[in-house]
UniProtKB/TrEMBL annotation, chains A, B, C, D, E:
<dbReference type="InterPro" id="IPR050456">
    <property type="entry name" value="DeoC/FbaB_aldolase"/>
</dbReference>
<dbReference type="InterPro" id="IPR013785">
    <property type="entry name" value="Aldolase_TIM"/>
</dbReference>
<comment type="similarity">
    <text>Belongs to the DeoC/FbaB aldolase family. FbaB subfamily.</text>
</comment>
<keyword id="KW-0704">Schiff base</keyword>
<dbReference type="InterPro" id="IPR041720">
    <property type="entry name" value="FbaB-like"/>
</dbReference>
<dbReference type="Pfam" id="PF01791">
    <property type="entry name" value="DeoC"/>
</dbReference>
<protein>
    <recommendedName>
        <fullName>fructose-bisphosphate aldolase</fullName>
        <ecNumber>4.1.2.13</ecNumber>
    </recommendedName>
</protein>
<dbReference type="InterPro" id="IPR002915">
    <property type="entry name" value="DeoC/FbaB/LacD_aldolase"/>
</dbReference>
<keyword id="KW-0456">Lyase</keyword>
């Protein structure tokens, strides 16, 4: 297998990294229908843990079964499946080698309103499950943010030492950030920057809104036209070391698919590396989800700024 | 990517193994031109260490360069490249993700006549280099065989614990075995059995001759027609847990390619999982080697017992 | 290379320190345009983490790219680049050996008002990145100051044990200190003293104002003419073990360059060892920043008390 | 400081290595009079340990003092000083930062005829002394060769993990090798190959003679004209991964300086990366040694194949 | 207390060493009647272990009691008492703080003819006993010499890390050395060199004879007049890094006191740092031993080369 030029360009941003980490990044980037394009489309399924099973799966009860998500990711030609220890454990043997896996190694529930996450798995788990990467969530801005950074830093160091890539979900929140602030452009960009500084290879953020949340940050954005999502995505890419780190964007709140496809196109136009779409996919019937993910892949593969999907 | 049925059948023999090990076996079995067939064709390049650089590479000086072997394995569509730490280190970054790698973790030279190997690398090296497997040589029958088994056993345990597959090169030799005995059918089968008992996932042996070396073993083979290599290979497969372990065969001493192709066809007919061909390939000019390896792949992919290549 | 007499005089203050630490201090002191003079001019780039990427880099978008800062520090002939893990990781391979690096190993963001820092990297990271020093921020006076001191003390011990020099950013703040108090002469001097007591080899402080913040400290300064910055810098040097520890001063809040150059001249006249200038440099266009840093170097190299820049 | 193109080309052969290791290689390659040329000239002083102090230093008693060797290496503009723990410890503080140091971490004496070395220092010692590299001797072919390889392998792994470069002195010897065989071309090349396979960044060998020692290796060299040292050096470079690893050559047995300069020129013409000259230098009066080393540097810096020095 | 100039000159040879080690060296050098002179006279009592109690103490039964040796060392104004764990343990409480102690941490008996030593104590023992130094014996040349070097190296590293000084007893012996060779000048010098290379702060050797044992070493001593002990001691000091390491000499085989005093004077004249006299002292009645040690101290304190004691 030849690594494509597009993928090699991405890998070149990780000079000096252990070859095993680069090989795992290559595995993600060469797999599935986006394979070779430098883009990623990932299925994340941690909602059972994060939101509860009923809220997550009752609308499509087939999705209670971990195997369902492996099947969906494979059928749709995705780059990877990302999930907590238990879900991956339930399918890793049956689907061994069929697709890259990302072990989501810390998790929170919503039975309380703690803004924190428990470390629920480790590097050895990831290796035993055959994962290509390990993933951590951080909540920049929350009361326990620095403890989170320290936990994640240790996980990143150990992962790199064992040849695993690291994905960081950067979700700013906290007492000083209102609900709208969490997706404010300056805040999302800040989250991406922090993830990059901690050593993440792949950064996951929410699509940024046109809000600027921090008063001190406003002058920096003065005079910019932030009305287009593509422009805002481009700024997030700047915050991710001028695009030297892979950034993927969540699907954002549920919406009709047309709005979703427009959003994906804007992410593509802004230079984002791809999408990570959970509820918006697995809460639909299998075929519908597969087709929708296929469409998302098509959009990412189409020429940026072209006539779109 | 769907794991093919042929590969799934092979993987099913490893029930209960860590999913990461199975994922790495799947990686080897799904890669290259034999991908999906359940067969493996591997390029091993430890001869610089084992026989010396001049003897190994002077006939084709381009092969002094580690990158050459990565290129050859990729171009020929092989399943993997197997080599010691230094050779892999020299190319693992440049070719990250391009093909499965097997770290040959113990090595011997022939500047002395010790029948032993030095442990020259470990599981952490394999992970940092992005390898799918780690490999060890054992010399059943030699004076230090049990120390070797113990070293290899530790390596196997650590490898499995970190999701790596393990290849064991089983080369019986020692004071009680003459040169011809080393490839005797009973002895080769015995070596394969020991490798399987030590926990090897993939076993590498030499094509067995019709000799029966151990007097005590002779009655067991009485009345069998051992004249055909396919029959002898079939016996080695029996010794490898009735085929529950992957066995690959070396190309044996340099010979004309017709003889080599016949041998490969016999290995295929006997149920061998594939070939591991070093000197016979890289000591030829690049194009010739690539074509020869292509032919070997063709033979393994062709119907067993058919009219052959 | 001969260590210059000026540098040897500085190194002699670190008698009994591991030679590796002294070698790394020598590396910083012998590098760049100030090399050999006993002075240091350092580029610190942790603002993406500390203030957010937009506020830090939007005025000069080229600076979103980590490589930009390596290039700037090299082109301007600086002593070193100081930055968090992610930024250094993004350039350490490409610029290996080109300039001394300082790993800023704890970091804070301003998405919350915590007065604390997360430990985001360690000694092993610093060694693997090829750094000459590791850096920590302390906030003497803040609620978690003692936890910070304890974290930093552990980092210092491990760094020294591995031959790395340690830079401590001493920023007093806390419930008992108003905004103006943070740069009050007595408080800045106090911060420098605490850093020295914790074992810092290099101390970074802000230029002190003429304010005396602590009522109990006022009699100590009675009758002194604190109107000149050089005098105040001289007092900070006293607090840094009578000049036995290297002290570098930040550029302070953005100001016109004439004011900045005057400040640098006063630091020089007061016996400060150098400057550490971040936003004031990288928020300008490359050429302008390089020239400004060149001017700062010239001032530090010129005779103290001379006609200045 | 800009890394020169010649040095960058050498560093590019170490892709995927920790940036700290590359920075230390760069330090060696950018220092002294050969700095920037891609060549190295190193002073090794382990003879007090290996041959005894009287034999080593009585001809030039000033050389009993460890400081003498630091001074000689600095004055002559060499790339580095390599020595055991005690010698480096005696001067590392006084000469901190003045030149790159290589800690020779295993050592033998000649009070017995053991073909083995004691591990006399470790990575932490190297870091505390401010070394850029750690060095090990191997005796491929000796009875304890595999234990030596295993010790060295552990040292290499730990060194790389802490950002240190590794030099391996490859000296084949043993029951199966006569005195003349130890410098035979096939044997020297074999030693270089083994060092490269073990993960050495820099390999030190003796200039190879035209002897071919191993009967099995003879056919590989048939028909080659091995009468010129440059040709033989070129073959050793092939054995060092086609020149992807740095190889330096010892001065060989004492000889008149004209013969030595001719030898150095041949090493240069054959593509060797430099020289490591101990007794031949420090057994002469200081000025004479400095001038001779200067001439050696000149030869390495002059055009290969030109009219020589 | 002011450290005397003579002692400071000695301490300056240990630049870069942990200050705690230097403080312990200073403790030894400032204690007793030689305090401040740069000389040491030490009482070693390991003969009960090394030769058996009867042979060691029956001639002066009071010496069976460990307290006897503490009393003798104190009364005679010695620099330190050196002994194994048990002997020190028996008196360390009673005489806590009364004199510097050196824990002899490896020991051999003569119930067998093994040329090896058992590690019988460690750094923690030394600290708990209030010792200033820890001591190890090495047998350069013996079959297990490299294992001994490796054990001692670990002890030295740990001792330095805990601020303890290290004394190495260097006693070459082995299959290749006859009885006379063990005290041959070249061999004693070689032992001193090895101890220095291993990192010893204080080296203990036997007074060298005029024999040159190693054939290869003879040319190095050609033409030298080795008939005087002072000349030979001077050569041993060269071997100890040109006098940069403290070397003390044993009293040698029992002899009449006049011969002993002459020997001590020659050691003084040759630049030796002092004496370590066991059997020759404690096998005499207390008063006689005290007076003899007093005389030895007088000789070391008298002008070198003067009319002697």
């Amino acid at each position: 297998m030849r690594i494509s030029e597009a993928v090699q360009r991405v890998l070149n941003n990780y000079g000096g990294e252990r070859p095993g980490v680069k090989a795992n990044l290559a595995r993600l980037l060469m797999h599935g229908r986006t394979g070779g394009s430098g883009k990623l489309v990932i299925l994340p399924v941690d909602q059972g843990f994060e939101h509860g099973p009923g809220r997550s799966f009752s609308v499509n009860p087939a999705a209670y079964d971990p195997h369902y998500h492996f099947e969906l990711a494979i059928e749709a030609g995705l780059s990877a499946l990302a999930a907590p220890l238990g879900l991956l454990t339930a399918g890793a043997d049956r689907f061994a080698g069929a697709l890259p896996l990302i072990l989501k190694a810390n998790n929170a529930d919503n039975l309380s309103d703690d803004r924190d996450q428990a470390v629920t798995a480790g590097v050895r788990d990831a290796l035993q499950l055959g994962c290509s990467a390990i993933g951590y969530t951080i909540y920049p801005g929350c009361d326990r943010q620095y403890e989170m950074f320290e936990e994640v830093r240790e996980g990143i160091a150990e992962a790199r030492d064992h040849g695993l890539a690291v994905v960081v979900w950067a979700y700013p929140r906290g007492r000083h950030l209102g609900k709208d602030d969490e997706t404010a452009l300056d805040v999302v960009a800040y989250g991406a920057q922090i993830a990059a500084q901690l050593g993440a290879h792949i950064i996951k953020v929410k699509p940024p809104s046109a809000v600027i949340a921090q008063a001190e940050a406003r002058p920096a954005y003065e005079g910019m036209d932030l009305s287009g999502l593509a422009t805002r995505v481009r700024h997030v890419m700047q915050a991710a070391f001028a695009g030297r780190r892979i950034v993927v964007f969540s699907g954002g709140p549920a919406k009709d698919v047309t709005a979703l496809y427009d959003e994906i196109a804007a992410i593509r136009d802004g230079g984002g590396h791809g999408s990570i779409v959970g509820r918006n996919s697995f809460q639909r019937p299998f075929g519908e989800a597969r087709d929708m993910l296929g469409r998302i892949i098509d959009i990412h593969l189409s020429q940026a700024g072209g006539q779109g999907p």
